[in-house]
Design goal:
Blueprint lengths: L2 H18 L7 H29 L6 H16 L7 H4 L10 H13 L8 H13 L4 H31 L5 H8 L4 H5 L1 H15 L3 H30 L20 H16 L1 H23 L6 H19 L11 H4 L5 H16 L1 H6 L1 H5 L5 H20 L1 H4 L19 H24 L2 H17 L1 H14 L1 H10 L2
Helix pairs in contact: 1-5, 2-6, 3-7, 3-10, 5-11, 6-7, 7-11, 12-13, 12-16, 13-14, 14-19, 14-21, 16-19, 16-23, 19-21, 19-22, 21-22
């Protein structure tokens, strides 16, 4: 079997795998929302490319290379939500009579030819069409367009390398930080404004030259070779179970014994967050994001306006819940049969989860103190979003315990396939991020700011104090659907 035949076979298998996934049928409404989102973003990109084209026509065509680093940085972070790693995809083929290097190379090429890389053409094509109509020769136009798209493909390879290394150890976050900080070094010596101008002028003058194209070719080859060897090695080591085990004695947390069965499940939540790789990484990444946001909000003026300030304050509080509770009962789906052997076990699990995630809110509360001390946040606003998250937000997210029926891997890396197993997950995600901010702006406009935040605190406290009532309601509805959910958990293990 030659590489071309292998490539088309693997591509066909990936499409069939997505269609045969147990959550495919339930994902259709989420797919519709995604299509609307992509359509909106496409219109925005076309508009932005058109505006840049009109500004650059007549001699400033290299302007695209001056702004391209910003687009590449945005593209890099966007890939964390969608691009899968070859090491996760090649494992089913490792026992087949096919060379591992061929399989790995095919999946890397597949990532380079992904439709995601073509997304930026919605911006680039209008830009180059306008500058071509403005007098730029057609050959030069096509050459610049190809180079811009080439840089997007290089960015895909760069993301693949960084994401693979970060999955092995979070300390590798230092690599992209160092790489992205290096071009910004002139801002330290020349000042922010002057240094930024120097960077833009350098990209404008040298990004589209013969030497630059040669450098792009070398970088492409180097990244391809490194990714090929790294992905092949990691896939083989995971299948062979070569991962080193470091057994550590965790705390007994005997102070939770006084709370009976709820206390035991609280211990399970804590140990699950410490021991299970997939869950632990979610908490570490969440902690990192909140620290970065807190620093940005405290020491910079990037985000101005009431909506932005309220939005990011809420985001810091709701992030842990939105990322983890949207998959509530997913980890327990791996051993849900055992949980159903005793009466009201599920109710005690729900209570333990609620107390655990309420306790986790201490972390963003402490981390948001710098913006409070710097005057960007008021203490009343922080308390309002603390209580609204503890009450209303958790009430909404816990409703998914009734409808979720896909097991979440505990130690394997979670891919982007099946991020939303039902449409309710997507709807609740949108509600928990935007509705409290809308309520805050509404109340503070109708009344004064202090009264608006006091109303939010009252709403949050109402749901918090009645948590036993609505948790029991969720438990009863879950038990009515237990056989349907049990079938889904077993099918997705």
């Amino acid at each position: 079997m030659n590489k071309l035949t292998l490539f088309f076979m693997l591509r066909r298998n990936m499409k069939l795998s997505n269609k045969r996934h147990p959550m495919f049928e339930q994902n259709k409404i989420a797919i519709i929302f995604t299509i609307f989102g992509v359509a909106f973003m496409s219109i925005y990109f076309i508009f932005l490319g058109t505006m840049l084209g009109w500004g650059a026509r007549g001699g400033d065509e290299e302007l695209i290379f001056a702004v391209l680093p910003i687009f590449l940085l945005l593209d890099f972070f966007m890939r964390f939500g969608g691009q899968q790693l070859p090491s996760l995809l090649i494992k089913p083929y490792l026992l087949m009579p096919i060379r591992r290097s061929d399989i790995t190379d095919c999946f890397i090429v597949m990532s380079m030819l992904s439709s995601f890389n073509l997304l930026w053409l919605l911006l680039l094509v209008p830009f180059f069409f306008i500058v071509c109509c403005g007098g730029l020769p057609f050959s030069t136009t096509m050459g610049m367009l190809i180079v811009c798209e080439w840089l997007i493909v290089i960015n895909a390879l760069w993301y693949m390398l960084v994401r693979t290394l970060i999955n092995q150890s979070l300390w590798w976050v230092a690599l992209p930080i160092a790489i992205y900080a290096l071009p910004l070094s002139p801002m330290l010596f020349l000042g922010a404004e002057k240094g930024f101008e120097v960077i833009i002028e350098f990209c404008y003058d040298y990004a589209y030259t013969g030497i630059a194209v040669a450098i792009y070719a070398v970088v492409t080859i180097v990244l391809f070779v490194i990714n090929s060897r790294l992905q092949k090695h990691l896939a083989a080591s995971e299948v062979a179970a070569e991962e080193k085990k470091d057994f550590q004695n965790t705390a007994q947390m005997s102070f939770l014994d006084r709370y009976g069965l709820t206390g035991e499940y609280l211990k399970l939540e804590v140990k699950s967050a410490i021991r299970n790789k997939a869950i632990r990484q979610r908490y570490i990444k969440g902690l990192w994001i909140i620290v970065m946001l807190s620093a940005i909000l405290a020491f910079t003026d990037i985000y101005e306006g009431r909506f932005a300030i309220n939005m990011w304050c809420l985001y810091c509080f709701v992030f842990f819940g939105a990322v983890n509770l949207v998959k509530i009962m997913g980890p327990e789906g791996n051993y849900i049969d055992l949980m159903l052997t005793h009466k009201e076990n599920i109710l005690e699990i729900l209570k333990a989860k609620y107390y655990f995630f309420c306790s986790v809110l201490i972390i963003p509360t402490v981390l948001l103190l710098p913006p409070v001390f710097s005057g960007r946040f008021s203490i009343l606003m922080v308390l309002a979003y603390l209580f609204i998250t503890m009450g209303l937000e958790h009430f909404l997210l816990f409703q998914l315990a009734v409808y979720n029926k896909a097991s979440l891997p505990l130690n394997e890396k979670v891919t982007s396939k099946g991020n939303f197993e039902n449409s309710l997950q997507l709807v609740i995600e949108l509600v928990v991020f935007f509705v409290p901010v809308a309520l805050s702006l509404l109340f503070t406009n109708i009344f004064d700011e202090a009264i608006g935040y006091y109303i939010l605190i009252a709403i949050g406290l109402a749901f918090t104090l009645t948590h036993n009532i609505w948790l029991r309601n969720i438990y009863q509805r879950f038990m009515e659907r237990r056989y349907e959910n049990l079938e889904g958990f077993r099918a997705t293990r």
